[in-house]
Amino acid sequence: MGEVIRVSDKKQFLQWFLQRYELRSPEAGRLLRYLCNQEHILQRVHFADDLRNLPKTLLISATCVDTAPFRFCKNGRVTTSVADAFRDIRQFPNEDIYISLFFRNRAACAEYLAVLERPIGSSQRQSAFFLELQAYWILDAIHREVLYRHWMEAADRALELGDRELFEKAAEELRRLGDPDAAIRSVGTEENM
């Protein structure tokens, strides 16, 4: 990795970023604001574009790009839950966190490049990484859609049978899953990443 980025520079960049961009996940914005206020954790934050083989990563997208809103990866486990990321960061404040932010024209953004510790590698390596990431997002969206259909059918069956308990369980699972079409819409690429 290159030179060490000062905590004050990371904080200033995050504040600039949060003022300039609306995030696809408002909870992710709260997480970034939390990091700004925790200098001991901010020391362990690294901005990177190549997140492969890193133990703890956050991917956060602005509304101006068509990528997944939020992903937290730790030791190969991936989740879309900002709450899980919050818990982990609070529980393990001494672990390094690698963050990749997705927003329009980020590769040409001087503010982002100034704090970037793992710069964009060759376009071939970067393309392979983003293809792998896209594949994961697509599989995740398909899985969510299958679960959504399953619970919709369970809700229909419960209504036909008058089974209130099954209906409430199906309704809760549907609320938890959210709109699968939104998950599918969040899968995409952004030309100017």
Automatic annotation (TrEMBL):
Coiled coil (UniProt feature): none
Pfam name, any one: UPF0302
Every UPF0302 domain range: 9-113
InterPro entries: UPF0302, UPF0302_N, UPF0302_N_sf
Superkingdom of this protein's organism: Bacteria
Protein name from the UniProt record: UPF0302 domain-containing protein
Taxonomic source organism: Kyrpidia tusciae (strain DSM 2912 / NBRC 15312 / T2)
Taxonomic classification: Bacteria, Bacillati, Bacillota, Bacilli, Bacillales
